[in-house]
Predict the 3D structure of the following.
Amino acid sequence: MKLISLNKITDNMVLAKNVYAREGNVLLAKEAPLKQNYATKLQEWGVNSVYVQDNQGDQLEIDEDLCQQAKGSVLTYLHEFLADLNQNQLSDLVRQTLETIITQILTDRNVLWNLVEMRAVSEDIFRHSVNVSVLSLIIGSFRGYTNDRLTELATGAILIDLGKITVAHELLDDPKISLTKENIGVQEHTRLGFEKLKQLRGNYETAAQVVLQHHEKYDGTGYPQGFKGEQIHEYARIASIADIFNLQKRGMQNDSPTQVITNGGGTSFDPELAKLFSQKIAPFFDNTSANMPDTTPAGQPSDQEQQKSPDNSDADAKLKKPSAVEYRHDSRSKQDMNSASFFSKMKGYFANKEHHAVEETDPKQTNRQAKVNAQNGNSDKTDKGYGDKFVVYPEWCQYTQDIASKIITKELSKISSDLIPKAVIETTQKTMEELLADHDLISNMVMIQVLDENIFLHAITVGMLSVMTGASMGYTQEQLNELGTGALLIDVGKVEISRRYNVDSRFAGTAEYEALMHEHTQLGFEQLWEMRPNTNIPYIALQHHEHYDGTGYPTGLKNRQINELARIVVLAEAYDSLIYEGIEGQKLMPHEVIEYIRDLSGSHFDPEISPVFLQNTIPFLVGSNVLLNTGETATIIKINKNLLARPLVRLILDKDGNKLSTLIAKDLATDLTLFIVAALKDEVI
């Protein structure tokens, strides 16, 4: 097994370990074949290296390029850390000592290789470890440590999260577990890191104690051994302060970093070290301080001690949401646009909505025409500098929101509370309505509706079925919101395909079109990552065509490698697609789809989620229209609980499609000569 940099990837290499995104989702699964062109995308997703199979089995070899890159990054992070300190407060001698010690420990091959592996797991963990080591060295310097002791301290501190390598590879198949939050699995990283260091050749006994004990607390309430006071190695007591302070400084917790250390003296932290840190070191991070209080008498708090460190602006920064969604295109796609382009359809679609028609005197009409002209290469004086973008206006969003809301309300009203719990129905209604009020989501739904009305209706059904399943599984509102958003936007990548290649469903069935459609998962992921980064939402779009047995696309993930929310959406997407599109053009009846899902539970579908999904799936709903074997059209008026596929219906059209003057009721449970052959969308009637 070899850990290589991305530029070393060649076609037909095979992954030796899963490739994870920052928040824990699997991007590529173990044993997946690699392609050289994967490197660019992996880099965009924050991946810097991959494990590949070789003829050495489990014996690890690390690419020398990665070692040199890690060295450079450690020194870069060191300099950035020092640059954040108040100017002229840390002496040149201390700064020089810090760089000398850090450079020295990087010459240790074992330390460097472990750092490279930590970086492969998470850049955040890697950087955090560097910062903890630097901060520990500063504390050690104020304790008067010799260079030998500082080297021991720095080695242990920079490897405190070494055990998270094993945690990530063996324990974090669940994407909802974060590497940066404490939980039972992650707590094991202290023991795992300790054991890994103990197995190395060399003198790493002291470093191993730091790794094992850096989550112990002074009062004995920490883990893994519950040590207290001086039972905890002094280096570990120092690393504990550095670890918590840096986490606080990064905005991962809410309180003032300095106040946490100060208040924790005697409970979480060594009181003497906490006092030293608060008085002598914390002011480095107080940008209002002019001079470090080196002359403060022992036992007297400095002025800066009571001041709150500034919040981490990066952690709290929010992207400013634009008033309209802008879609840009490159020069290649611009040349491909013509009068039948997606953007021309966009304008024409809404211009034809009678109750939303815009008067020529309306300034927005000029703006819209300018944007359409820009897309079609016909920019003129009316362009007004809009360039390569198309803006979705509020009235368009309102129109699409109204349509979607009516569909959802109508479909949910057909469901009897004695078939599906009332609480599930109400939660689904509430969640869907809230999601439709989201500006970013509804703007994308506008684009989907313009592209293809059937894709739009499909998205609404998939969204409802997914949220109902999540509600039945006891999901929190936050989880339901992510699930619903991802489900509604699973096909947003098809908008991008239409924009790039100027194709739509009229080309369906051609080999070229089907090949392009396989790209929509990747394109949807990229678009949703811009909209909702570091959430489950992009992964729903990316993975909604993966199969539980690994036979899906785009990356052949299997089992729990597939995001749990995506596994729900896979079911909802398949259910609606099989009814209205079928298999190779052969549409299936709802009850046939239910049997299909049952049969493929454990292969295509998650065997644990499938039963929950099917509990919320009623073959035919009251008010739905169906086609009978006689050619007549009927509306369902009552569900027979014991024979869900044979409801009570009312005939509304004869076999020639003529409206019946007399409405006739038929009970399919008793009239066995009649049966349903197709479910019809309301628009067909």
